[in-house]
Amino acid sequence: MHCPFCRHADSRVIDSRSTEDGAAIRRRRTCPACGRRFTTQETVLLMVGKRSGVTEPFSREKVIAGVRRACQGRPVTEDALAKLGQRVEESIRATGAAEIPAHEVGLAILGPLRELDEVAYLRFASVYRSFETLADFEAEIERLRKERAPAPGD
Ligand SMILES: [Zn+2]
């Protein structure tokens, strides 16, 4: 790690600690040439494995873009999309896995999306769960109705 002040090619770690969410490690470093101190942060790259065998870094933006498509015409704000993206990323990182299959990203989206907008959820689920017939939709809608928390006064 180059010193950001004098570009010296080496530095010494004087302290290492995990960030609060455990997703990264911060290191306090000192430069043996100029003596100045700086902090670096290392994050574990969360990789997503596609069916083709290709892996790519997890992208919260991609999650949000996919959900945004499902939410077209629905009363869902950008703020709500951003929060959903954050929840999805947190739930995936909480598994502690360094690599997860792409379909698990899709599954992690379903829960929060269902709370956000049931119509968008159905659109998204129809793709991720490969609904093929109307009966698939009917079964999912039936499940939604059953599992929906009763409204106050019901
Ligand atoms: Zn230096």
UniProtKB/TrEMBL annotation:
The ATP-cone domain, residue ranges: 46-136
Free-text cofactor note: Binds 1 zinc ion.
Cofactors that this protein relies on: Zn(2+)
Keywords: ATP-binding, DNA-binding, Metal-binding, Nucleotide-binding, Repressor, Transcription, Transcription regulation, Zinc, Zinc-finger
Zinc fingers, unnamed class: 3-34
A GO biological-process term: negative regulation of DNA-templated transcription
Gene Ontology terms, MF aspect: ATP binding; DNA binding; zinc ion binding
Entry keyword Manganese: no
Pfam families (UniProt xref): ATP-cone, Zn_ribbon_NrdR
Keyword Transcription part of the UniProt annotation: yes
NCBIfam families noted in UniProt: transcriptional regulator NrdR
Family of the protein in this entry: Belongs to the NrdR family.
Function of the protein: Negatively regulates transcription of bacterial ribonucleotide reductase nrd genes and operons by binding to NrdR-boxes.
Protein's name in the database: Transcriptional repressor NrdR
